[in-house]
Amino acid sequence: MASSFFARLPVRLPRTQGGRIALSLAFVYIVWGSTYLGVHVSLESFPPLLLSGLRNLLAGIGLFVFAIQRRPQRPTLLEIRNAGLVGTMLVALSSGMLAVGMRTVGTGMAAVMVATVPLFATVIAAVAGRSISKGEWGAVALGLVGIAVLNHGDASAGSAGGSLAILAGALFWAGGAHLAGRLKMPSDLFLSTSLQVGLGGAVSTVIAWTLGERMMDLSFAPALAFLYLVLVGTMGAYVAYGYLIRHTSPIIASSCMYVNPVVAVALGAVTLGEPVTRWTVIATLIILASVGLSFWFDRQRVTS
């Protein structure tokens, strides 16, 4: 299980489950917040869909090699199919659309838009038949207001298309997460993660190649950013996120969605000189408030 993985690492980690949960949260908060910068730098040499595909395909292969060494229970064809379906949603469609959108949208703005995942999750839950309170719908409406404010005054040529691509990626992530909680998946955390990431990456790579995307001249900074995305941003972060999914509530595990934008905005401002305008700050506060409200109403529904 996941606990044995932590025990084998060559660094001293917390021995309690609470400590490991805290470490996993901090890791996901910081790393997934920094991947927006990694994608931005990698796009200097990688076309967007090919970047998403190769990043996840290589990470999936690495996780699969590690997983089979632990001799997990062999997955059924149904579990493999389900993992591929979820991986296509989370990787090929969600990560791919994010990379496409980030060609014209800054790292901080992209991260704030991705924070709308819980809002899309609320809409998907309603379509699936779950009763949604007026407060939850209010949180969704507030999030849409935040998106409108975020794009206020941005007249760049590719801004609208890039924003729509990122929002589509957030919708696909919410849909994939919804399916992941309802479909039968491989019982082993690492095998399940490797199949989702690897199969999703393979689908994205095939789509990219079919559409004519090819590698550009590879320079040092994009190559280093790509390695970071594969080893840390995908392999490490997905395992930490999977650990949270299995040992905490969905609310706690999904809290990264409203912490990551803060990290991304800060890194974009410090390293890339991206402007943090008044509208960016206002929109960030509105969207984070809407996501926080959606989590609060969800907790109220569970405890009532």
TrEMBL record:
InterPro entries reported in the protein's UniProt record: AA-Vitamin_Transporters, EamA_dom, EmrE-like
CC per GO annotation: membrane
Record has tRNA-binding as a keyword: no
Keyword NAD: no
The family this protein is said to belong to: Belongs to the EamA transporter family.
PANTHER family reported for this sequence: EAMA DOMAIN-CONTAINING PROTEIN, INNER MEMBRANE TRANSPORTER
Name of protein: Permease of the drug/metabolite transporter (DMT) superfamily
Lineage: Bacteria, Pseudomonadati, Pseudomonadota, Betaproteobacteria, Burkholderiales
